[in-house]
Amino acid sequence: MPDYLVYWQSFWNDVDDPAEVVHDWYTKNETFYNQIERGDNLWVVVSGGQASPGEWRLLQRIYVASRDPHLQQSQYGPYHVIGDEQQGKVFDPSLQPDFAPLLKKLRFASGNRITLSGGRIGQALQSIRRLSDSDVVLLREYAEMLKPI
Fold first, then answer.
1. What global pTM score does this model have?
2. Distance (Å, rounded) from C-alpha 60 to C-alpha 23?
3. Bridge partners of 130?
4. Tens digit of pLDDT for each residue in 84-94?
């Protein structure tokens, strides 16, 4: 089952409390929506926000339960991925160090690493990226050190 890195660019404007984060994902990318399956994981990255501009955080791991067959009216896109709350995890971004060093270690299935730094990393995260097997190991090890909400 593939894992993907996704970027929630507007997180700090959309959510007041990370504990309110749900285990679903909406996308405008129909191709991505059609290729994901039950058991895939979406690793959600957010910026460090106003408190830590130019830094990055791991917000959550969404375990894909299914795809909603009905198009949705969402600001994030019409394609709804339903996550399994029991198998997914949400992490408090305010309790984390900068995630950028780990982001720069990721190789991705494409082999194209992130070479940008600071806030410019967001440019590299605009498109959904499939993770390599070694990337998944790194992310799982990192997530094990974080306390889930």
1. 0.96
2. 8
3. 4
4. 999 999 999 99
How far is CA 81 from each of CA 3, 9, 53, 85, 86, rounded to the nearest angstrom? Answer: 14, 17, 29, 12, 15
- Residues 4-37 as b or e (16 or more Cβ within 10 Å = b): bbbbbeebeeebeebeebebbbbbeeeebbeebe
**Tokens encoding 25:** 């994902």
Residue the block writes with tokens 């990318």: 29
The pLDDT score that the predictor gives to residue 92 is 95
Q: Span 3-145: which CATH code?
A: 3.10.590.10
